[in-house]
Amino acid sequence: MANDKVTSNDVARLAGVSQSAVSRYFTPGTSVSKKTAEKIRAAAEELGYRPNVLARSLITGRSRIIGLVVAYLENYFYPEVVERLSKALQDQGYHVLVFISSIASENVDQITQEILDYQVDGIVLASANMSSELAARCHASGVPIVLFNRLQDDVRLSAVTSDNRAGGRALADLLVSLGHTRCGYIAGFEGASTQRDREQGFCEGLEAAGLTLFARGVGNFRYDEAQAAARRMFAGPDRPDAVFVCNDHMAFAVMDVLRFELGLAIPGDVSVVGFDDVPPARWPAYNLTTIRQNVDDMVAETVATLMQSIKEGEGAARRVILDGTLVQRGSTAQKTPTDETR
Amino acid sequence: MANDKVTSNDVARLAGVSQSAVSRYFTPGTSVSKKTAEKIRAAAEELGYRPNVLARSLITGRSRIIGLVVAYLENYFYPEVVERLSKALQDQGYHVLVFISSIASENVDQITQEILDYQVDGIVLASANMSSELAARCHASGVPIVLFNRLQDDVRLSAVTSDNRAGGRALADLLVSLGHTRCGYIAGFEGASTQRDREQGFCEGLEAAGLTLFARGVGNFRYDEAQAAARRMFAGPDRPDAVFVCNDHMAFAVMDVLRFELGLAIPGDVSVVGFDDVPPARWPAYNLTTIRQNVDDMVAETVATLMQSIKEGEGAARRVILDGTLVQRGSTAQKTPTDETR
DNA sequence: ACCCATTTTGCATACGTATGAAAGGCTGAA
DNA sequence: TTCAGCCTTTCATACGTATGCAAAATGGGT
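Predict the joint structure of the above. Result:
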């Protein structure tokens, strides 16, 4: 790899000081006289020297690398998370090592093993679950884990998520208040806490209004599977008058099927609501009513959780549940006769 | 960090062999007897030992980390690239360390310095430029660089890109063949080779048909700026009858403005074409005619280029230019009177 | 049993860096 | 001028691992 590697020993030689002085010059909180510092600065600049982060990690036990596991970036929500999380950590002097897992999380344990090989200072799991065996392993290694937009029962796992249940509840309340009486639900991946909590909140909201779920499908967080679920749900004569789709990504698919395959009007014939408020939800083509996840705050809490765990070690796992925001747009409307004359 | 770190010395002690034997057991191509191997395997398993990749890098000069610089993940094209590139490299035993740069690339040099601190085995620059000074630095360090979807004149920089110029040309030819005579163009970021080449090909195609560019705007690869550019382009009475938008991401914005703000029909009043064929281009809401970039082949070529450079050192920079594919969808149609009666 | 060629093993060292401890240098007060 | 306290520097070592080299072990042939 390095044909021309400059080390702290080269700098020390040129500056006429010890390697130890060079190291201290580049280590915050240590003492170097002004005179020595200037000699080192000049030598380092002349030779183009920068400390080797990996060699440092051997001594300090800190790699300044955070492992990030994501299952897919197809859903606009996660690219935004990756981008913001990387930036936020970059600002803290850390960098993100990306690992791609499968949607069903069946290879997360293997991937986490690989992550640990890199002596990461922490791990963020976005849209993935971790076995308790691996959670124990990370805990024993002192590597903090933060679940992003997921919850697990393991007390060793910190988590930052939106209040998915309250979000689902709010969407049910909204649809009921708009006069909807036959509400359907299209689920994400059944093994995900986000899917479970959103559905739970939604059903609770319906129940509070004396309703039950009118129809249910499964989209597995995939555009094509959500399309298929919508086709099935709307195949017969008994159709929902509103659909809560577990996330925006799938909601776009459902909307596309309803409009372009079935010739239905949204919200005239059926209201559609999603969850996330990813960019296309705001685009006029979709104009989707949804729950906005506050990605900035989630990222900030994730970084804060990681930094605290890294700094203080042990510590109890931290769970942060942030409120989402109901954003009402053009995919929902009052279900009244006047609605149909527009 | 590690409270309970298991080293090869621990394994050696338990197995009753030397640390050297443990190391050889975990290093491909070295010799260990079956008897010794079994003792080491059992000890390593009992202790949960895995080699420390970072410590290894000190000896081998190989970190098995690839630095990836991306400017934004807002455009659906790049999340897909990150995902596939990460997977492809993961399969080769490498992992991607992500760095987020700004769109205008003004901080790429600083970021590249940081990347080099991690002793990366290679760097991929997606949608970013690198200064020749830094290119020289990487070259001196023996770190191969591959530009992804970008071209630069520096002979030290390998690149993998689509034939953007031919793609732009093909789109011009298509629009002309469909009878369009007033073709507009909305540019991406002016400092990007993709933007320059796509526009160049488009203008060459128009010129070959005896036409010139009817109108031009700049969208800087941003949804909101593309919206503004569309509003300006269609503000007066002299409007284009077709628009080539430099990438799909911006094309969606232009389509949204034309339809929902100006009440224009696509393709009845104006045809719109993009570049990339990102997932929403295939969605019925957009149904966009575009040039498909073969991401799988681009990723494969990028990985092949990196692996070759890492394995063989020096080597001449490699430039791979792949053909895109014209995908004709519902955003374009024949511009005839019969068109207007539908 | 002996010899030879090959495989296997352990020793010693190095990779690039940070750090504890001891020694040296500097500064201010008596 | 001397002394005490604090700052600065260097030496020696360690971090976890791979590898060159010499010695030991192994297996096959005579």
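Residues 5, 7-9, 19-20, 22-24, 26-27, 30, 33, 51-52, 54-60 of chain B lie near DNA strand D (CB under 10 Å from a C1').
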